[in-house]
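Give me the fold.
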Amino acid sequence: MTVSDASAATSLTNRYGRPKRALTRRKKIILTAVIAVLVLAFVTWLAVGRGPAAVDSKVIGFSVTDATLTEVDFQVIKNPGSTAQCAVKALGSDFAVVGWDVLTIGPNAAGTGADQGRTTAHRAKARTESLAVSGVVDSCWLVSG
């Protein structure tokens, strides 16, 4: 290295700073292990931590009796010992809500319904303000207490 090369290197170092060092092999292994542990923790949280929904519903059918009443037949899947509530909607031809009802589904015996009492059938009657063309379960939730 000549004097001019050394002064050029010093000048570049003064101007731009010292060149960055590459990661050592040990640091690369540690960084890879930390990333692998974080990914494994995230995948475990997705698979186990969130778990299945506490309550779910499935519409079996509906019938429009007249312009003032719509009945919705549905199944509720929940723990047999818990109490749930389900909101049932009657919809008009323009998809507007024309009727609404909230049905409370109490605890039941393990022999009731299907799947050791987890799945039970229910019928909700929603009073309507005009003729409905459809009946749906809007949502179900567990009642605490």
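The helical segments are 3-16, 25-49.
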